[in-house]
Amino acid sequence: MLPFILVYSCDSSTYAQKKEKVDVSQPSFFLEEYQQVKLDSLVNAAIFDSVIPGAVLSIFVGNQEVYQKAYGWASSQDFGGSPLEQSEAMTTDHMFDLASLTKVFATTMAVMKLVNDKEIDLSDPIAQYLPLCEKPEWEEITIRHLLTHTSGLAPWKPLYYHASTSEETYAYICSLPLASEVGDERHYSDLGFMLLGYLVENISGMSLQNYLHENIYHPLGLNKTLFLPEDPTFKFAATSHGNPFERKMVEDPDFGYTCDENPDDFNDWRQRILIGEVNDGNAYHANEGMAGHAGLFSTAHELQQLMQLLLKGGNAHQKNILDSQTIKTFLTKDIFGHGLGWAMSANTIPVSNLPEGAFGHTGFTGTYALGLPDRNASLVLLTNRQHLGVNEEGYYPSVTSLRRAVSEYFIDISKP
Fold first, then answer.
1. Per DSSP, what are the bridge partners of residue 67?
2. How far apart are CA 309 and CA 304, in angstroms?
3. Across 151-278, where does the E strand assignment appear?
4. Each residue of 119-177: pLDDT tens digit?
5. Residue 18 confidence class, pLDDT cut points 50, 70, 90
6. Of 342, 305, 122, which Cα lies nearest the Cα of 212?
7. Residue 193: which of 290, 336, 335, 308 has the closest Cα?
8. Nearest-5° angle of CA 171, CA 176, CA 180?
9. What's phi and psi for 75, nearest 5 deg?
10. Hey, is 160 helix, strand or coil?
């Protein structure tokens, strides 16, 4: 049964005497009650309309977490195909499968640290660190090309048909022809970020997980931001029932991808509700759960610590983790309107009133983060939209409207 949801409406006349905008110059910042009600109404409406089963919303302004709230269900017997024995209400402690937020909160940050520490240069050819990439048509690909999705690599392939370990996957990706000329076009590529993950590991001599833990996550005090979470005390927001969307990507040429593989030739399609295991098939099957493009889990609160690291110039707990110049380099727009790793264009961040310098990213499981350097403010909205399952056309519910509504209101109320 769906939880009873109270969807608030806000009559502007009720709050006629309230201030319209938040004053972020004040040392003690808080959200007005009517602003909290408005945020609640936006998220609760999405639950009521069966867009999402649950969510966690966190807002930081001026170095303070001014709002954090959980909504709806983390998992439910009414969602996701096979019933669960018991529904579980969402809490702010629940960890989410971040999907492509892995690209920015793991891989991009690891590359930032390597650049910061002068271990690598963005103009270095990737073959300098990934020997299997050393072939004529790939020789121009640099680290910057991978970060900006301009390497010419294909966006996606069902790699688990051809590889079952990270080593095999690395070799298979490097055997593929490029889909376009290096540097000519921007094509968002999971394969490119997998290579960045292998690059971090080859340079550091550590797993991506261990490098991030030692250099970024542990110094920030993060203990729920990790790949392959196994602690029995962790609580997870459930994602999908298996991988019906990915199967359709393989079997239906009109679904957006042309694949030579036969869906019936792969015998490991999962047939269970995924809780605490990565949803992405290439991360799960082809990279043993840890990859540069997907596989990271975290909470909204811990992601905010990483957003604050970027907004505060790379300093945290009296430690300098990243130099401000490194952050500026990664958050400077390229010719396609994006930063390095980070999305910075209104074409990708679904917001009409996007301030200059804003950065963010989305994740396929329903995750989202947005930072506003001009007002030292950040928003993290994590949902488990996949737990509702796919519709008749094979698609999960779209959370674009929810992201847009919450982001635009957040941008509006956080104006100085």
1. 59
2. 8
3. 226-227
4. 999 999 999 999 999 999 999 999 999 999 999 999 999 999 999 999 999 999 999 99
5. very low
6. 305
7. 290
8. 140
9. -155, 155
10. helix
What six digits make up the tokens of 41?
């109404």
Q: Which residues contact 68 (CB under 8 A, 6 or more apart)?
A: 56, 57, 58, 59, 92, 300, 301
φ, ψ of residue 370 to 5 degrees: the values are -145, 130
Asked if 46 and 7 count as a contact pair (C-beta separation under 8 A), the reply is: no
Is the pLDDT confidence value at 257 over 60? yes
- Of 225, 287, 286, which Cα lies nearest the Cα of 101? 225
Q: What is the mean pLDDT of residues 91-99?
A: 98
Torsion (CA) 203, 344, 179, 201 in degrees, nearest 10: 10
Nearest CA among 258, 263, 262 for reference residue 179:
258
Coil, helix or strand for 298? Answer: strand
The letter for the amino acid at 74 is A
Q: Which band of pLDDT confidence, cut at 50, 70 and 90, is reported for residue 279?
A: very high
**Strand ranges (E), 192-263:** 226-227
Query: Encoding tokens for residue 287?
Result: 């990279």
Determine the residue type at 270: R
User: How many whole angstroms from its chain centre is CA 180?
Assistant: 25
| DSSP H/E element including 244 | helix 244-251
**pTM value surpassing 0.85:** yes
